[in-house]
TrEMBL record, chains A, B:
Keywords: Cytoplasm, DNA-binding, NAD, Repressor, Transcription, Transcription regulation. This is Redox-sensing transcriptional repressor Rex. GO terms for molecular function: DNA binding. InterPro entries: CoA-bd, NAD(P)-bd_dom_sf, Rex_actinobacterial-type, Rex_DNA-bd_C_dom, Tscrpt_rep_Rex, WH-like_DNA-bd_sf, WH_DNA-bd_sf.
Length: 210, 210
DNA sequence: TAGATTGTTAATCGATTAACAATC
DNA sequence: TAGATTGTTAATCGATTAACAATC
Protein backbone atom coordinates (compact mmCIF):
# COMPACT_ATOMS: atom_id res chain seq x y z
CA UNK A 1 0.00 0.00 0.00
CA UNK A 2 1.31 3.40 -0.99
CA UNK A 3 0.99 5.26 2.27
CA UNK A 4 2.84 8.35 1.14
CA UNK A 5 0.40 9.33 -1.55
CA UNK A 6 -2.54 11.41 -0.42
CA UNK A 7 -5.75 9.87 -1.65
CA UNK A 8 -8.48 12.19 -2.79
CA UNK A 9 -11.65 12.60 -0.79
CA UNK A 10 -13.60 11.77 -3.92
CA UNK A 11 -11.90 8.38 -4.09
CA UNK A 12 -12.59 7.64 -0.42
CA UNK A 13 -16.24 8.48 -0.88
CA UNK A 14 -16.53 6.06 -3.79
CA UNK A 15 -14.98 3.13 -1.97
CA UNK A 16 -18.06 2.45 0.17
CA UNK A 17 -20.13 2.34 -3.02
CA UNK A 18 -17.75 -0.14 -4.59
CA UNK A 19 -17.84 -2.19 -1.43
CA UNK A 20 -21.60 -2.32 -1.30
CA UNK A 21 -22.01 -3.13 -4.98
CA UNK A 22 -19.39 -5.86 -4.77
CA UNK A 23 -21.14 -7.45 -1.83
CA UNK A 24 -24.40 -7.42 -3.71
CA UNK A 25 -22.69 -8.94 -6.72
CA UNK A 26 -21.25 -11.62 -4.48
CA UNK A 27 -24.72 -12.43 -3.14
CA UNK A 28 -25.77 -12.94 -6.76
CA UNK A 29 -23.03 -15.53 -7.04
CA UNK A 30 -20.55 -13.50 -9.06
CA UNK A 31 -16.93 -14.52 -8.45
CA UNK A 32 -15.09 -12.34 -10.95
CA UNK A 33 -16.02 -8.85 -12.09
CA UNK A 34 -14.43 -6.44 -14.56
CA UNK A 35 -14.13 -2.72 -13.97
CA UNK A 36 -16.47 -2.40 -16.94
CA UNK A 37 -19.22 -4.43 -15.28
CA UNK A 38 -18.74 -2.90 -11.84
CA UNK A 39 -18.80 0.56 -13.37
CA UNK A 40 -22.00 -0.26 -15.18
CA UNK A 41 -23.70 -1.36 -11.97
CA UNK A 42 -22.56 1.76 -10.15
CA UNK A 43 -22.83 4.47 -12.72
CA UNK A 44 -19.09 5.17 -12.62
CA UNK A 45 -16.61 4.86 -15.49
CA UNK A 46 -14.34 1.80 -15.52
CA UNK A 47 -11.28 4.06 -15.70
CA UNK A 48 -12.37 5.81 -12.55
CA UNK A 49 -12.66 2.52 -10.69
CA UNK A 50 -9.27 1.25 -11.86
CA UNK A 51 -7.64 4.54 -10.94
CA UNK A 52 -9.24 4.58 -7.50
CA UNK A 53 -8.20 1.03 -6.73
CA UNK A 54 -4.71 1.50 -8.13
CA UNK A 55 -4.07 4.12 -5.45
CA UNK A 56 -4.05 1.33 -2.89
CA UNK A 57 -2.39 -1.52 -4.73
CA UNK A 58 -2.85 -4.02 -7.52
CA UNK A 59 -5.99 -5.96 -6.79
CA UNK A 60 -6.93 -7.19 -10.24
CA UNK A 61 -5.63 -9.68 -12.77
CA UNK A 62 -4.90 -8.35 -16.21
CA UNK A 63 -7.04 -9.88 -18.91
CA UNK A 64 -9.34 -11.34 -16.25
CA UNK A 65 -10.78 -8.77 -13.87
CA UNK A 66 -11.15 -8.61 -10.09
CA UNK A 67 -11.92 -11.53 -7.81
CA UNK A 68 -15.03 -10.35 -6.02
CA UNK A 69 -14.36 -11.97 -2.66
CA UNK A 70 -10.77 -10.74 -2.60
CA UNK A 71 -11.65 -7.21 -3.63
CA UNK A 72 -14.36 -7.00 -0.96
CA UNK A 73 -11.78 -8.01 1.63
CA UNK A 74 -9.24 -5.51 0.31
CA UNK A 75 -11.62 -2.57 0.21
CA UNK A 76 -12.98 -3.53 3.61
CA UNK A 77 -9.47 -3.37 5.02
CA UNK A 78 -8.75 -0.04 3.33
CA UNK A 79 -11.91 1.41 4.83
CA UNK A 80 -11.12 -0.11 8.20
CA UNK A 81 -14.40 -1.98 8.28
CA UNK A 82 -12.62 -5.00 9.74
CA UNK A 83 -11.92 -3.04 12.91
CA UNK A 84 -15.39 -3.24 14.45
CA UNK A 85 -15.66 0.38 15.48
CA UNK A 86 -17.96 1.16 18.36
CA UNK A 87 -20.20 4.20 18.18
CA UNK A 88 -22.50 6.11 20.48
CA UNK A 89 -25.56 8.08 19.41
CA UNK A 90 -26.26 11.26 21.34
CA UNK A 91 -29.83 12.52 21.07
CA UNK A 92 -32.59 9.94 20.68
CA UNK A 93 -35.10 12.20 18.95
CA UNK A 94 -36.71 11.23 15.66
CA UNK A 95 -33.42 11.21 13.80
CA UNK A 96 -31.42 9.48 16.53
CA UNK A 97 -34.15 6.89 16.79
CA UNK A 98 -33.91 6.22 13.06
CA UNK A 99 -30.14 5.97 13.25
CA UNK A 100 -30.07 3.42 16.05
CA UNK A 101 -32.44 1.26 14.04
CA UNK A 102 -30.56 1.55 10.79
CA UNK A 103 -29.47 -1.97 9.87
CA UNK A 104 -26.77 -1.20 7.35
CA UNK A 105 -24.40 -0.06 10.07
CA UNK A 106 -24.16 -3.51 11.57
CA UNK A 107 -23.66 -5.00 8.12
CA UNK A 108 -20.67 -2.66 7.72
CA UNK A 109 -19.13 -3.79 10.99
CA UNK A 110 -20.14 -0.88 13.20
CA UNK A 111 -21.34 -1.62 16.69
CA UNK A 112 -23.87 0.56 18.51
CA UNK A 113 -22.41 0.61 22.01
CA UNK A 114 -24.28 3.43 23.76
CA UNK A 115 -27.08 5.96 23.49
CA UNK A 116 -27.61 9.18 25.38
CA UNK A 117 -30.43 11.63 25.91
CA UNK A 118 -31.55 14.27 28.39
CA UNK A 119 -35.23 13.37 28.32
CA UNK A 120 -36.19 11.18 31.33
CA UNK A 121 -38.79 9.42 29.19
CA UNK A 122 -36.09 8.23 26.84
CA UNK A 123 -33.58 7.26 29.51
CA UNK A 124 -33.69 3.59 30.39
CA UNK A 125 -35.26 2.50 27.11
CA UNK A 126 -33.80 -0.67 25.70
CA UNK A 127 -33.06 -0.79 21.98
CA UNK A 128 -31.68 -4.09 20.83
CA UNK A 129 -30.03 -4.74 24.16
CA UNK A 130 -28.52 -1.28 24.56
CA UNK A 131 -29.94 1.13 27.13
CA UNK A 132 -30.41 4.88 26.71
CA UNK A 133 -28.29 6.57 29.37
CA UNK A 134 -28.48 10.10 30.75
CA UNK A 135 -26.11 12.48 29.04
CA UNK A 136 -24.34 13.10 32.35
CA UNK A 137 -22.72 9.69 32.09
CA UNK A 138 -21.30 10.29 28.63
CA UNK A 139 -17.62 10.58 29.63
CA UNK A 140 -17.74 7.59 31.96
CA UNK A 141 -19.49 5.26 29.53
CA UNK A 142 -17.49 6.24 26.45
CA UNK A 143 -14.26 5.46 28.25
CA UNK A 144 -15.61 2.30 29.83
CA UNK A 145 -16.89 0.86 26.54
CA UNK A 146 -14.01 2.07 24.42
CA UNK A 147 -16.22 3.98 22.04
CA UNK A 148 -14.40 5.52 19.04
CA UNK A 149 -17.15 7.37 17.23
CA UNK A 150 -19.76 9.82 18.47
CA UNK A 151 -22.90 10.55 16.48
CA UNK A 152 -24.49 13.93 17.12
CA UNK A 153 -28.26 13.90 16.64
CA UNK A 154 -29.19 16.72 19.01
CA UNK A 155 -30.60 20.14 18.10
CA UNK A 156 -28.21 22.67 16.66
CA UNK A 157 -28.13 24.69 19.87
CA UNK A 158 -26.55 21.81 21.78
CA UNK A 159 -24.32 20.37 19.07
CA UNK A 160 -21.10 22.15 20.05
CA UNK A 161 -21.53 21.31 23.75
CA UNK A 162 -22.07 17.65 22.90
CA UNK A 163 -19.09 17.68 20.56
CA UNK A 164 -16.91 19.09 23.34
CA UNK A 165 -17.98 16.36 25.72
CA UNK A 166 -17.47 13.63 23.14
CA UNK A 167 -13.99 14.92 22.41
CA UNK A 168 -13.25 15.22 26.12
CA UNK A 169 -14.35 11.64 26.59
CA UNK A 170 -11.88 10.53 23.95
CA UNK A 171 -13.79 9.78 20.74
CA UNK A 172 -11.67 10.08 17.62
CA UNK A 173 -14.41 10.70 15.13
CA UNK A 174 -17.72 12.57 15.06
CA UNK A 175 -20.58 12.06 12.69
CA UNK A 176 -22.53 15.28 12.89
CA UNK A 177 -26.20 15.48 11.90
CA UNK A 178 -26.78 18.89 13.45
CA UNK A 179 -27.04 21.55 10.76
CA UNK A 180 -24.08 23.59 11.91
CA UNK A 181 -20.31 23.68 11.97
CA UNK A 182 -18.71 22.16 15.04
CA UNK A 183 -15.20 22.97 16.19
CA UNK A 184 -12.94 20.18 17.39
CA UNK A 185 -9.19 19.65 17.75
CA UNK A 186 -7.34 18.59 14.63
CA UNK A 187 -6.86 15.10 16.00
CA UNK A 188 -10.60 14.45 15.75
CA UNK A 189 -12.23 13.81 12.39
CA UNK A 190 -15.67 15.25 11.73
CA UNK A 191 -18.00 14.15 8.97
CA UNK A 192 -21.01 16.39 8.49
CA UNK A 193 -24.28 14.93 7.30
CA UNK A 194 -26.37 17.90 6.46
CA UNK A 195 -29.80 16.93 5.21
CA UNK A 196 -30.85 20.41 4.15
CA UNK A 197 -28.01 20.57 1.60
CA UNK A 198 -29.43 17.69 -0.40
CA UNK A 199 -32.93 19.08 -0.54
CA UNK A 200 -31.76 22.61 -1.34
CA UNK A 201 -29.54 21.49 -4.19
CA UNK A 202 -32.45 19.48 -5.57
CA UNK A 203 -34.49 22.66 -5.49
CA UNK A 204 -31.75 24.45 -7.39
CA UNK A 205 -31.61 21.90 -10.18
CA UNK A 206 -35.39 21.65 -10.49
CA UNK A 207 -35.52 25.40 -10.97
CA UNK A 208 -33.14 25.19 -13.94
CA UNK A 209 -34.36 22.07 -15.69
CA UNK A 210 -36.79 23.36 -18.28
CA UNK B 1 -27.64 36.22 -13.85
CA UNK B 2 -25.21 34.46 -16.13
CA UNK B 3 -27.28 31.55 -17.33
CA UNK B 4 -24.82 30.34 -19.91
CA UNK B 5 -22.06 29.49 -17.48
CA UNK B 6 -22.25 26.08 -15.89
CA UNK B 7 -21.94 26.37 -12.15
CA UNK B 8 -19.98 23.70 -10.34
CA UNK B 9 -21.70 21.21 -8.11
CA UNK B 10 -19.34 22.22 -5.33
CA UNK B 11 -20.64 25.78 -5.53
CA UNK B 12 -24.28 24.67 -5.44
CA UNK B 13 -23.61 22.53 -2.39
CA UNK B 14 -22.09 25.47 -0.54
CA UNK B 15 -24.98 27.84 -1.22
CA UNK B 16 -27.31 26.19 1.33
CA UNK B 17 -24.57 26.59 3.94
CA UNK B 18 -24.19 30.26 3.11
CA UNK B 19 -27.93 30.65 3.26
CA UNK B 20 -28.23 29.04 6.67
CA UNK B 21 -25.34 30.94 8.17
CA UNK B 22 -26.64 34.22 6.83
CA UNK B 23 -30.04 33.59 8.33
CA UNK B 24 -28.47 32.86 11.68
CA UNK B 25 -26.38 36.01 11.40
CA UNK B 26 -29.52 37.93 10.64
CA UNK B 27 -31.20 36.55 13.75
CA UNK B 28 -28.24 37.88 15.70
CA UNK B 29 -29.05 41.29 14.33
CA UNK B 30 -26.26 41.54 11.77
CA UNK B 31 -27.14 43.72 8.78
CA UNK B 32 -23.87 43.74 6.86
CA UNK B 33 -21.33 40.95 6.60
CA UNK B 34 -17.98 40.66 4.81
CA UNK B 35 -16.84 37.55 2.98
CA UNK B 36 -14.10 37.42 5.62
CA UNK B 37 -16.59 37.20 8.50
CA UNK B 38 -18.97 34.85 6.70
CA UNK B 39 -16.06 32.62 5.78
CA UNK B 40 -14.92 32.55 9.37
CA UNK B 41 -18.33 31.44 10.57
CA UNK B 42 -18.55 28.73 7.94
CA UNK B 43 -15.03 27.41 7.74
CA UNK B 44 -14.69 28.46 4.08
CA UNK B 45 -12.18 30.92 2.64
CA UNK B 46 -13.46 34.42 1.80
CA UNK B 47 -12.15 34.03 -1.77
CA UNK B 48 -14.23 30.91 -2.19
CA UNK B 49 -17.37 32.72 -1.10
CA UNK B 50 -16.77 35.70 -3.37
CA UNK B 51 -16.09 33.40 -6.30
CA UNK B 52 -19.20 31.33 -5.67
CA UNK B 53 -21.44 34.36 -5.42
CA UNK B 54 -19.86 36.08 -8.40
CA UNK B 55 -21.05 33.22 -10.58
CA UNK B 56 -24.60 34.49 -10.11
CA UNK B 57 -24.18 38.24 -10.06
CA UNK B 58 -22.81 41.14 -8.07
CA UNK B 59 -24.43 41.03 -4.69
CA UNK B 60 -21.94 42.94 -2.58
CA UNK B 61 -20.77 46.52 -2.21
CA UNK B 62 -17.04 47.10 -2.63
CA UNK B 63 -15.40 48.41 0.48
CA UNK B 64 -18.50 47.55 2.50
CA UNK B 65 -19.53 43.90 2.28
CA UNK B 66 -22.83 42.16 1.71
CA UNK B 67 -26.20 43.30 3.02
CA UNK B 68 -27.38 40.26 4.94
CA UNK B 69 -31.09 40.57 4.19
CA UNK B 70 -30.48 41.15 0.51
CA UNK B 71 -28.01 38.30 0.17
CA UNK B 72 -30.39 35.90 1.89
CA UNK B 73 -33.08 36.85 -0.60
CA UNK B 74 -30.69 36.49 -3.54
CA UNK B 75 -29.36 33.08 -2.51
CA UNK B 76 -32.88 31.95 -1.70
CA UNK B 77 -33.95 32.84 -5.23
CA UNK B 78 -30.93 31.13 -6.76
CA UNK B 79 -31.73 27.96 -4.84
CA UNK B 80 -35.40 28.26 -5.73
CA UNK B 81 -36.42 28.27 -2.07
CA UNK B 82 -39.00 30.94 -2.85
CA UNK B 83 -40.94 28.45 -4.94
CA UNK B 84 -42.53 26.48 -2.12
CA UNK B 85 -41.84 23.04 -3.49
CA UNK B 86 -44.15 20.27 -2.37
CA UNK B 87 -42.71 16.90 -1.51
CA UNK B 88 -44.00 13.43 -0.70
CA UNK B 89 -42.27 10.90 1.52
CA UNK B 90 -42.60 7.28 0.49
CA UNK B 91 -41.91 4.77 3.26
CA UNK B 92 -42.82 5.78 6.80
CA UNK B 93 -40.35 3.52 8.57
CA UNK B 94 -37.90 4.84 11.13
CA UNK B 95 -36.12 7.04 8.61
CA UNK B 96 -39.26 8.28 6.88
CA UNK B 97 -40.75 9.05 10.27
CA UNK B 98 -37.70 11.13 11.15
CA UNK B 99 -37.86 12.95 7.82
CA UNK B 100 -41.50 13.95 8.10
CA UNK B 101 -40.73 15.42 11.51
CA UNK B 102 -37.62 17.29 10.44
CA UNK B 103 -38.34 20.96 11.04
CA UNK B 104 -35.64 22.52 8.89
CA UNK B 105 -37.50 21.60 5.72
CA UNK B 106 -40.37 23.90 6.50
CA UNK B 107 -37.92 26.66 7.41
CA UNK B 108 -36.43 26.26 3.94
CA UNK B 109 -39.79 26.60 2.25
CA UNK B 110 -40.52 22.94 1.53
CA UNK B 111 -44.01 21.66 2.10
CA UNK B 112 -44.76 18.07 3.11
CA UNK B 113 -47.81 17.34 0.99
CA UNK B 114 -48.20 13.56 1.18
CA UNK B 115 -46.92 10.36 2.77
CA UNK B 116 -47.18 6.80 1.57
CA UNK B 117 -46.66 3.37 3.05
CA UNK B 118 -47.74 -0.22 2.48
CA UNK B 119 -48.22 -1.09 6.15
CA UNK B 120 -51.93 -0.91 7.17
CA UNK B 121 -50.87 0.17 10.65
CA UNK B 122 -49.19 3.25 9.22
CA UNK B 123 -51.92 4.12 6.74
CA UNK B 124 -54.37 6.68 8.06
CA UNK B 125 -51.98 8.14 10.61
CA UNK B 126 -52.07 11.90 10.86
CA UNK B 127 -48.78 13.75 11.08
CA UNK B 128 -49.16 17.47 11.36
CA UNK B 129 -52.39 17.46 9.39
CA UNK B 130 -51.14 15.18 6.62
CA UNK B 131 -52.42 11.61 6.38
CA UNK B 132 -50.39 8.52 5.45
CA UNK B 133 -51.94 7.07 2.31
CA UNK B 134 -51.61 3.60 0.81
CA UNK B 135 -48.94 3.39 -1.83
CA UNK B 136 -51.57 2.39 -4.41
CA UNK B 137 -52.79 5.98 -4.48
CA UNK B 138 -49.38 7.46 -5.22
CA UNK B 139 -50.03 8.50 -8.85
CA UNK B 140 -53.43 9.94 -8.12
CA UNK B 141 -52.35 11.99 -5.12
CA UNK B 142 -49.10 13.28 -6.58
CA UNK B 143 -50.95 14.66 -9.57
CA UNK B 144 -53.82 15.99 -7.51
CA UNK B 145 -51.57 17.85 -5.07
CA UNK B 146 -49.02 18.98 -7.63
CA UNK B 147 -46.12 17.36 -5.85
CA UNK B 148 -42.71 18.07 -7.40
CA UNK B 149 -40.35 16.06 -5.24
CA UNK B 150 -40.45 12.44 -4.12
CA UNK B 151 -38.46 11.22 -1.14
CA UNK B 152 -37.58 7.53 -1.18
CA UNK B 153 -37.29 6.06 2.30
CA UNK B 154 -38.18 2.46 1.53
CA UNK B 155 -35.90 -0.59 1.69
CA UNK B 156 -33.40 -1.00 -1.10
CA UNK B 157 -35.37 -3.84 -2.69
CA UNK B 158 -38.29 -1.54 -3.41
CA UNK B 159 -36.44 1.65 -4.25
CA UNK B 160 -36.43 1.27 -8.03
CA UNK B 161 -40.11 0.33 -8.17
CA UNK B 162 -41.01 3.37 -6.08
CA UNK B 163 -38.80 5.58 -8.23
CA UNK B 164 -40.59 4.34 -11.35
CA UNK B 165 -43.98 5.15 -9.87
CA UNK B 166 -42.85 8.58 -8.71
CA UNK B 167 -41.52 9.38 -12.15
CA UNK B 168 -44.67 8.03 -13.76
CA UNK B 169 -46.73 10.25 -11.51
CA UNK B 170 -44.75 13.27 -12.68
CA UNK B 171 -42.30 14.25 -9.96
CA UNK B 172 -39.30 16.16 -11.29
CA UNK B 173 -36.88 15.40 -8.49
CA UNK B 174 -36.10 12.44 -6.25
CA UNK B 175 -34.30 12.49 -2.95
CA UNK B 176 -33.13 8.93 -2.49
CA UNK B 177 -32.28 7.53 0.93
CA UNK B 178 -32.14 3.91 -0.21
CA UNK B 179 -28.56 2.68 -0.40
CA UNK B 180 -28.58 1.93 -4.10
CA UNK B 181 -28.48 3.50 -7.51
CA UNK B 182 -31.84 4.27 -9.06
CA UNK B 183 -32.40 4.73 -12.76
CA UNK B 184 -34.63 7.53 -13.99
CA UNK B 185 -35.06 9.49 -17.22
CA UNK B 186 -32.68 12.38 -17.75
CA UNK B 187 -35.44 14.86 -17.15
CA UNK B 188 -35.64 13.81 -13.50
CA UNK B 189 -32.97 14.92 -11.04
CA UNK B 190 -31.87 12.46 -8.35
CA UNK B 191 -29.96 13.39 -5.22
CA UNK B 192 -28.64 10.41 -3.29
CA UNK B 193 -28.33 10.61 0.46
CA UNK B 194 -26.34 7.59 1.38
CA UNK B 195 -25.76 7.33 5.10
CA UNK B 196 -23.30 4.47 4.94
CA UNK B 197 -20.84 6.56 2.92
CA UNK B 198 -20.37 9.04 5.74
CA UNK B 199 -19.74 6.41 8.36
CA UNK B 200 -17.43 4.39 6.13
CA UNK B 201 -15.29 7.36 5.24
CA UNK B 202 -15.06 8.23 8.91
CA UNK B 203 -13.79 4.71 9.50
CA UNK B 204 -11.18 5.23 6.79
CA UNK B 205 -9.83 8.43 8.28
CA UNK B 206 -9.79 7.07 11.82
CA UNK B 207 -7.70 4.17 10.63
CA UNK B 208 -5.07 6.54 9.23
CA UNK B 209 -4.91 9.20 11.91
CA UNK B 210 -2.04 8.20 14.16
C1' DT C 1 -8.91 61.18 0.53
C1' DA C 2 -7.59 56.74 2.81
C1' DG C 3 -9.06 52.33 4.11
C1' DA C 4 -11.72 48.45 3.17
C1' DT C 5 -13.64 44.94 0.55
C1' DT C 6 -15.62 43.32 -3.58
C1' DG C 7 -15.40 41.14 -8.30
C1' DT C 8 -12.40 39.22 -11.63
C1' DT C 9 -8.37 37.59 -13.86
C1' DA C 10 -4.30 34.66 -13.66
C1' DA C 11 -1.81 30.84 -11.46
C1' DT C 12 -1.99 26.68 -9.12
C1' DC C 13 -3.65 22.64 -7.72
C1' DG C 14 -6.35 18.42 -8.02
C1' DA C 15 -9.38 15.12 -10.22
C1' DT C 16 -11.12 12.86 -14.31
C1' DT C 17 -10.65 11.01 -18.88
C1' DA C 18 -8.10 9.02 -22.61
C1' DA C 19 -4.74 6.13 -24.33
C1' DC C 20 -1.87 2.29 -24.27
C1' DA C 21 1.78 -0.84 -22.75
C1' DA C 22 1.95 -4.82 -19.82
C1' DT C 23 0.32 -9.26 -19.08
C1' DC C 24 -2.99 -12.79 -17.83
C1' DT D 1 -1.28 -17.18 -29.90
C1' DA D 2 -5.27 -13.95 -29.75
C1' DG D 3 -8.41 -11.58 -26.94
C1' DA D 4 -9.34 -9.28 -22.82
C1' DT D 5 -8.57 -6.33 -19.16
C1' DT D 6 -5.65 -4.31 -15.83
C1' DG D 7 -2.41 -0.61 -14.11
C1' DT D 8 -0.18 3.56 -15.31
C1' DT D 9 1.23 7.54 -17.77
C1' DA D 10 -0.15 11.64 -20.33
C1' DA D 11 -3.73 14.99 -21.56
C1' DT D 12 -7.67 17.37 -20.31
C1' DC D 13 -10.78 19.35 -17.58
C1' DG D 14 -12.48 21.66 -13.47
C1' DA D 15 -12.06 23.81 -8.99
C1' DT D 16 -9.49 26.46 -5.65
C1' DT D 17 -6.21 29.93 -4.32
C1' DA D 18 -3.69 34.12 -5.00
C1' DA D 19 -3.34 38.62 -6.51
C1' DC D 20 -5.00 42.96 -7.63
C1' DA D 21 -7.65 46.51 -10.05
C1' DA D 22 -12.05 48.65 -9.33
C1' DT D 23 -14.77 51.22 -6.35
C1' DC D 24 -17.58 52.11 -2.32
Amino acid sequence: MKDQIIISKATIDRLPLYYRTLRRSQEEGLEIISSEELGHRLGVTPEQIRKDLAAFGQFGKKGVGYFVRELIRNIGEILGLDRKWSFAVVGIGHLGWALVHYRNFKALGFHLAAMFDVNPEKIGQDIGGVIVDPIERIEEIIKERNINIGVIAVPQSQAQAVADRLVGAGVRGIWNFAPCKINVPESVKVVNEDLSVGLSSLSYYLGRML
